[in-house]
Design brief:
This protein is of the alpha/beta class and about 375 residues long. It is built from 18 helices and seven strands. The protein is about 50% helix and about 5% strand. The strands form two sheets. The protein has a four-stranded parallel beta sheet with strand order 2-1-3-4. It has a three-stranded parallel beta sheet with strand order 5-6-7. The structure holds iron/sulfur cluster (2 copies).
Length: about 375
């Protein structure tokens, strides 16, 4: 695509700031593909006025670069700006890729693949919002979690829906905005005042909704009865923190506290000086560049000690790191019991959503 500097001012700001120290590349899934430092690469783009359409879609939008940069250069916002630009007049190749993502987004937000707010007593003002990944990969865990939440608050409802992150990652803020507006309208019309989310992407994406958005970790962690009924105790484990919580210390502390209740010796900083690494599942990378996803999840496994379980608080991380059969488990599974199913592929994801929808309606009767 052609680059007009005035339309993407983030690029000039970045090129002027970056000193090409290479620190961001240590934890960047694009590092193998860059022959020069990011400052030089972006400067070339600006000089030539052209960039490969799919270049920004190799980035998982993990934010590692922006959080470690010593001079405050924000590479992630460069990627976001380029993605938005790529959506304006996409080439045929990109149109095909975008179509795949938008079909996925449509299905994820489609009412028949989720539920409206469902309350055990017909109405309530607080509900559990599990998010797409958990609903598609482990519907049984969604039900178990809802039941656990109901044991703490008998009025707690549930709603299976999408926060719009797939469209937003693509650069389609218009589509994501419509999804979130629809969600806000539904919640308002049902009198919902608080949603309890289980996905770190939902936690970030829905923070602008006109309701209180709480994370399940703080909600469960504040309850003493749960720690008395832990279903698993691990000898050796490492905690993989999800990218959306990278700068959210308060939230990470809540999750780590629960993880330590399951495994007192859990390593909560397994990557050491490398900082938090991305599982590769963000930013639609698995659709645009699936080969990057596997090489990055392999890299994470290199940090694993023999026999260690990997504990995640994001179902997308669980799936991209191989799921239960690879010794990767969701923290909710450890807290509530049962085995993680293998990551579903293709139609199985949507079949799981339909199964969950029926189970929720049955459970609420
Ligand atoms: S860490 Fe910052 S200054 Fe260093 S190469 Fe990355 S963006 Fe440039
Ligand atoms: S957001 Fe993550 S994947 Fe994208 S450039 Fe930064 S470190 Fe690399």
């Amino acid at each position: 695509m052609k680059l007009n500097e005035a339309a993407c001012p983030e690029l000039r700001v970045f090129a002027d700031k970056c000193v090409d120290c290479g620190m961001c590349l240590k934890g960047c899934i694009m590092s193998d593909q860059l022959e020069e430092g990011p400052g030089k690469v972006v400067s070339h783009f600006l000089k030539n006025g052209v960039i490969e359409d799919d270049w920004p879609f190799r980035c998982s939008l993990c934010g590692y670069c922006s959080s470690v940069c010593p001079v405050g250069a924000d590479l992630r916002s460069v990627m976001t700006a380029l993605r938005k630009k790529a959506c304006v007049k996409p080439s045929l190749k990109m149109k095909k890729l975008f179509f795949g993502v938008l079909v996925f987004q449509f299905m994820a937000a489609w009412k028949h693949m989720g539920t409206p707010p469902v309350f055990p007593k017909g109405k309530g003002n607080r509900l559990f919002f599990p998010g797409c990944a958990l609903a598609s990969s482990d519907p049984e865990l969604v039900l178990m979690t809802w039941r656990e939440l109901r044991s703490l608050d008998s009025d707690m409802g549930v709603m299976v829906g999408c926060c719009g992150t797939p469209a937003a990652s693509l650069g389609r803020d218009d589509v994501a905005g419509r999804i979130r507006d629809g969600l806000a309208k539904t919640l308002r019309s049902c009198g919902v005042e608080e949603i309890v989310v289980a996905c770190p992407n939902c936690l970030k994406a829905l923070s602008s909704l006109p309701v209180k958005v709480s994370s399940i970790w703080g909600y469960l962690g504040g309850n003493a009865s749960l720690s008395g009924s832990l279903h698993a105790e691990l000898e050796e484990a490492m905690f993989h923190s999800p990218c959306p919580l990278r700068d959210d210390e308060r939230e990470l502390t809540e999750v780590e506290r629960l993880a330590e209740a399951v495994c007192p010796s859990i390593r909560t900083d397994p990557y050491g000086s490398e900082g938090g690494l991305c599982c590769g599942a963000g930013g639609m990378v698995p659709i645009v560049h699936p080969e990057v996803l596997s090489s990055w999840s392999e890299r994470i496994s290199r940090y694993r000690r023999n026999g260690e379980t990997v504990v995640c608080c994001c179902q997308s991380c669980v799936d991209s790191l191989g799921g239960g059969s690879s010794g990767v488990v969701h923290l909710l599974r450890l807290l509530l019991g049962g085995a993680s199913p293998p990551p579903p592929t293709g139609l199985a994801r949507w079949a799981n959503r339909r199964k969950l929808r029926r189970a929720i309606f049955d459970d609420a009767k």
